[in-house]
């Protein structure tokens, strides 16, 4: 990625009639972080981490890449387009097992930490006649951007509700920004979104003139657990997150920071250490960083810890 970036800077300089040398204030090395939709929490969480890396890791500059989300980030990581990725734990589990979107082969992922948990939102227009997930039949539903963690889990939830996502509804794969516009103007009836709390796009949607309703999803957990054991956990979207009348029972899944297995051990160690040493700076970027707990951050499930990260948790 660094070579491509420097080559681009050189080309721009040549086109402008300047010397091809890159600006002297560029750092020697760059780390590209795969995040998510610009109106989602991954983008803000990743931006805060990039700021901490750039400020406190000598010799490195971190660059935030907006992406489609979890699966897209892992595909980009495999191609070498990003160096560090945020991903849902269920998507990462499929990647290391070589399942689903990664059926062409297992991915050599290694985790640095479990950062926080995503809360799945099912938001519907109050006038759409949708009271349960099964009522999505025949409705216009956005399941999130293609290859996002939101889409990944939304399709599983729809199937757990006894519906076929491609035959039983008019399904769209839209960004969060396009989705919220569609719900506000009446071209969509419902959307799934999985993210931290609060998500800016959902907050903005709740301020729209059209009334919205959150539906509980905890009733789908038994079927999810049967199909995907020990992957999803019950949780609650607190009323305070979006000014709701009450808490919303839902499905949660952990978020991981992951890298390739061949990242140097010392770099993986330092990237992990930054998360805890500068936790308050991360929280200032997005409050979900406050959810990280050192005692649980190293319990990354199916995705093995990077040896450098493991050394940090062992030695501190």
TrEMBL record:
Pfam families referenced in this protein's UniProt entry, alphabetically: NMT1_3
Keywords: Signal
Signal peptide positions (record): 1-15
Record-given protein name: TAXI family TRAP transporter solute-binding subunit
């Amino acid at each position: 990625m660094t070579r491509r970036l420097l080559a681009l800077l050189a080309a721009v300089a040549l086109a402008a009639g300047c010397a091809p040398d890159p600006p002297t204030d560029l750092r020697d090395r760059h780390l590209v972080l795969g995040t998510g939709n610009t109106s989602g929490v991954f983008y803000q969480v990743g931006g805060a981490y990039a700021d901490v890396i750039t400020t406190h890791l000598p010799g490195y500059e971190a660059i935030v890449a907006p992406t489609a989300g979890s699966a897209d980030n892992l595909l980009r990581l495999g191609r070498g387009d990003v160096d560090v990725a945020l991903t849902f734990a269920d998507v990462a589990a499929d990647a290391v097992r070589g399942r689903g979107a990664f059926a062409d082969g297992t991915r050599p992922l290694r985790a640095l930490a479990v950062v926080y948990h995503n809360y799945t939102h099912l938001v519907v227009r109050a006038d759409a006649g949708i009271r349960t997930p099964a009522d999505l039949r025949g409705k216009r539903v956005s399941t999130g951007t293609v290859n996002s963690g939101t889409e990944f889990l939304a399709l599983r939830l729809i199937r757990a509700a006894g519906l076929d996502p491609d035959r039983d509804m008019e399904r769209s794969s839209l960004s969060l920004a396009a989705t919220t516009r569609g719900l506000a103007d009446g071209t969509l009836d419902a959307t799934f979104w999985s993210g931290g709390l609060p998500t800016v796009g959902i907050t903005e949607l709740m301020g729209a003139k059209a009334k919205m309703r959150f539906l509980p999803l905890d009733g789908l957990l038994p079927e999810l657990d049967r199909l995907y054991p020990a992957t999803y956990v019950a949780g609650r979207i607190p009323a305070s997150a979006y000014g709701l009348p009450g808490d919303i029972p839902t499905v949660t899944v952990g978020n991981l920071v992951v890298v390739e297995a061949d990242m140097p051990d010392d770099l993986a160690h330092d990237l992990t250490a930054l998360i805890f040493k500068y936790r308050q700076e991360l929280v200032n970027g997005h409050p979900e960083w406050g959810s990280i707990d050192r005692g649980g951050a190293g319990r990354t499930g199916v995705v093995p810890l990077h040896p450098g990260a493991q050394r940090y948790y062992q030695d501190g």
